[in-house]
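Sat 14:20. Reprocessing the chain from the morning session after the first attempt stalled halfway. Input below, unchanged.
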Amino acid sequence: MTSPDASLSGIRLRRTGGNAEEIDHLAERFGGRVGIDGLMGDLNRQARRSRFALGRAVDSAFRWERSDTLTKRWWPQGITTSADAFGEEGAGRRIAVVTWYSKQVDGLNKGSRLTFVDLDTLAYRHVLLVVPTRDEEGRIGLEPLKVHAGGIVWAGPYLHVAATGRGVMTCRVEDLLRVPDQVGVRNRDLLTLGSSGSGKASTFGYRYVLPVRFSYRASAQEGQAGLRYSFMSIDWSGPAPELVVGEYGRGTATTRLARFPIDAESMHLVIGADGHSSPIMLADAETQRMQGVAVARGMAHATISNGPVFPGDVHVGPLEGVRRGGRRFRWATPIGCEDISYWPATDTFWSVTEHPLRRWVYTMRRTWFEDRGAPRP
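Finished this time. Tokens:
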């Protein structure tokens, strides 16, 4: 395992204690955990193949159901797949997971959610992200996870969600819970667990919830600019996996990229002697409006948005400085490109777009960029 560079120790993540007891209480209240198998056997929405995701590098695409395409409350941001979780083919699964964040509508912010998609059938279901709480009298409650969720990584049993200045929020996939009929109330404007006895629970109308188990809280030493965890991906190409994180920035804002080592056995971030996780690489990408970066065959592929009118770009270059020695491919993605994830076995990228009426999940072949002169390591 590569040791963190002492010069980078100003950027840090510290894992919090966790919500294991609170999640156990929720599982008992809801009749037990259902996990990924239970969820994938109960998908209730249907995506459709689409030929209208216009971008020079787009190979295939699908679109959501009409209500999800039109909603102005929920905005897609991050994407990961079962290939991220297990390295190659995804341990027999072909699943994509997309993050959405909620804007405030009618005075209500519902936080963030995940969408699990069966890539063979394109059936999908939304899952609400929740934070278990405990009051002074020991009563368990629920709060929405209010983060931008600009990126997500499925790493073994965990889903790591980017939380910008707060760091990383982590859920365990097997903690997926189904709210049963006898407990749930279909109130789309209310999130409450009610009393532990006969009280009803309401989860904004969502049948499934996934609680945050712990977080990696971001900090920086005095004099060091804190890292914004705008997006993230996982790089399996080395002897051990690494978490790649980056900053969205415009104007004078920083646009840095970093690597954090992951322990291949536990799939936790490696913790140093000081009790923190520290980056083993920190560099300025010199690329504004980055929405996501995925490393493939030793090169970083960064999606770059051009607003709600023009298609997005992809910049290919070394992770240590995407712009330096790299090449930019104009209008490679549809309008409103966001996060990006790499599937090694198929040599393709997966990405997602955010704007209403122009929302797709789409793929791009890595060789499309290579055939057109993308740099090689």
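The chain has one domain: 6-371.
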